[in-house]
Amino acid sequence: MPNRIVTLDEFIIKSQKDFHFATGELTALLRDIGVAAKIVNREVNRAGLVNILGVHGAENSSGESVQKLDMYANDKLIECLSGSGECCGIASEENEDFVPLKAIESKNAKYVVLFDPLDGSSNIDVNVSVGTIFSIYRRISPDDGPCKLEDFLQKGVEQIAAGYVIYGTSTILVYTTGHGVNGFTLDPSIGEFCLSHRNIQIPKTGQYYSINQGYYSKFDLEMRRYVDNCSDENLRLRYIGTMVADIHRILFQGGIFLYPSTRKYPDGKLRLLYECNPMSFIMEQAGGKSINTRLQRIMDIKPTELHQRASIVIGSPQMVDEMKAFVERYSASPVLS
Ligand code: P6P
Description:
29% of the residues lie in helices and 24% in strands. By secondary structure, it is of the alpha+beta class. It is built from seven helices and 17 strands. It folds into two domains: 8-197, 2-Layer Sandwich (Fructose-1,6-Bisphosphatase, Chain A, domain 1); 208-330, D-Maltodextrin-Binding Protein, domain 2 (3-Layer(aba) Sandwich). The strands form four sheets. It has an eight-stranded mixed β-sheet with strand order 4-3-5-6-7-8-9-10, with helices on both faces. The chain is globular. A hairpin with a 4-residue loop joins strand 8 (171-176) and strand 9 (181-187). The structure holds 6-O-phosphono-alpha-D-fructofuranose. 6-O-phosphono-alpha-D-fructofuranose binds at residues 119-120, 122, 212, 241-243, 259, 269-270.
């Protein structure tokens, strides 16, 4: 039956056979994240109606003003994951430190979850797409006690699963467990994420490039030369200011997203753990590439702190390779690839 509805829950359960060691915990964890996404989606869609728009008044650990919806999404994700019993700790872009889950059913669980609860939150009040990004690792600390910092500072290659939700014209959850990438569109009439994009593969090249060209004068020489080349090649610039939305387009239509180092962010702006690693896992599983502007593979970088930033060049493999050639030709500092 070619058009039978396959829900996220059904797909996850059927995919459990991909994991020889899975005993259902990962399945339950992914389903709990799906529930949190539905709750956040409900509030994102009616944010203008309830007093949940605007600035929360606090600042996050990256010194950025926190939106009310940021905190709502953060609280809901923590609540759903705390209740799952499959997660022993969480780390969030909105929390200074990681949060061990101490409930009796959680503290010895196998997995830790890292997330950016609401990516692109500066776009919330103007009704532009925002997203949630998550990453799941197996804990490496002894499971007879609470999780430790080392559980969260693992390389991106150690991810067990990663995904994002884009709250846009429709709400789509895209995730991977290392066996390809699949997308599920939320059908509000039945409250289910339904399989809509099976085995997503990024085009080898594309016509879009995505970068905040407003920082052109602050880019390194190699980045300015590359941007000049994109213009010479008549590529189309698309930049929303929400990483999830900018990369979602590229995943489906081909292209390249870049957030390079700038004078304001010498290590890049985006967070390695909460944004770059999960989006890189998805991109590589879809046949794309993801490196930093020193040509290191993002998922090979060993994190040293929770809120570490990284520069990123991610997208169609041929376009990432073309960008590498500009770094090799024009960069004044040594590459690390
Ligand atoms: P800029 C949103 O605040 C975010 O973290 C990413 O989602 C987005 O790609 C980037 O920052 C936008 O940053 O400096 O272009 O406004």
